[in-house]
Amino acid sequence: MSSKIWLSKPHFNTTNLDFLKETFNSNWISTTGPNIDEFEKSIENILGNDLKVVALNSGTSAIHLALKLLNVGIGDEVICQTFTFCATVNPILYCGAIPIFIDSEKDTWNMCPVYLEKAIQNRLKVNKKPKAIIVVDSYGMPAKWDELLEISKKYNIPIIEDSAEALGAFYKNKMCGTFGKYSIFSFNGNKIITTSAGGVLICNNTKDKAKAIHLATQAKGIGHFQYNEIGYNYRMSNVLAALGLEQLKSLKEKIKQRRLNHIRYKSIMSSVGGVALKEEFDEKIVSNFWLNCIVVNNSKFSNIDFLNAFTENNIDVRTLWYPLHMQSYLKKYLFFGDRVAEVLFRKGLCLPSSSSLTEKDFLRIEKVFNLFK
Ligand SMILES: *Cc1c(COP(=O)(O)O)cnc(C)c1O
One MF term in GO for this entry (predicted)? Predict the structure, then answer.
């Protein structure tokens, strides 16, 4: 059988690993060192706007620290997009706080501003002002930032932007990762670029950055082994930051490649009936097309028929997110919305979208689609 075509796999363009050797020779192989500082600076340069970046061991820990910096604690309510990966919501639970889920809207599949405002008004009525709102740029598609930021401002509730998947995406000429009071990227193996495991927290000022680093390094006190708050071991390793620096060199190329994948899928899909490829809904919205997604609206075949056919051909496709408000451990929390996210789960699929996909891979993918003509 032909080799497996993965959904989104790590992509190292180099066989020259001297940059790792240099790191080992320097003996800075733990959670301090020059690569960490340089990696942070490089991302600060990409984002501009005087934003400050903290390198961490995962995107999940970045979300956790963002909540901590907003003083989210036991019993606080935090609003969260339902259509996303579990790592968006779990840090709310780490804080002992209570998630409140919001449905998607149909253009971006991200948080619906209408239901967001309904939820806030509902909670204000019972004197429970939410402490934060976590919005996701899911699959690399920017959320409706104008509308969402207006609501955040109107009710004075800060937004955490989970742009784990959205490095290189733009909303009206502004980069994803710059919209939140705090924002995050992930560099897990399946993301646009990878540090094998890792993430960053993006802050608006150096004071927040310093506080985040303090919390991420066990909240060390002034004296010897004396602490006055709970800290975490969340810092990125200097070895992995070297991988990050190497990956950043080809970031533009990788984003370009993912966007080319999208164009290739457009041409495949133009001849397949009853299947809609997820598109940018407005010319000012630029997705990085981290993953390409389809919705199957076909009277003869379901998304699972497609999934099975791809699986038989050793091609990795997945359903879209199972909405968080439907997960067994999260069902008990409030949900504001309709069935947009639920229908996406029941009808959708994500397709292989690695930056290393070849034309040969696409011909195999096209062949499977042609079975459904
Ligand atoms: C990958 C991802 C995360 C978590 O990032 P890790 O680095 O894997 O911890 C959070 N949110 C979303 C939407 C993600 O895709």
Answer: pyridoxal phosphate binding
Residue 144 among the catalytic residues: no
Q: What pLDDT, on a 0 to 100 scale, did the predictor assign at position 208?
A: 98
Q: Are residues 154 and 51 in the same domain?
A: yes
If asked whether residues 259 and 198 sit together in one domain, one would say no
Shared domain for 89 and 182, answered yes or no, is yes
Expressed in angstroms and rounded, the spacing between residue 85 Cα and the centre of ligand 1 is 7
Closest by CA position to 73, among listed 101, 92, 99, 100: 92
Per-residue pLDDT, 232: 98
Q: Which of 21-35, 127-141, 321-335 has the lowest mean pLDDT?
A: 21-35
pLDDT value at position 14?
A: 78
pLDDT band at 221 (very low <50, low <70, confident <90, very high): confident
Tell me the CA–centroid distance for residue 188 and ligand 1, in Å.
7
Number of domains present in the structure of the chain: 2
Per-residue pLDDT, averaged over 56-65, amounts to: 98
How does DSSP assign 282-351, residue by residue? STTEE---SSEEEEE--SS--HHHHHHHHHHTTB--EE-PPPGGGSTTTTTS-EE--SHHHHHHHHEEEE
315 within a domain of the structure (yes/no):
yes
| Active-site residue, selected from the candidate residues 181, 191, 254, 347 | 191
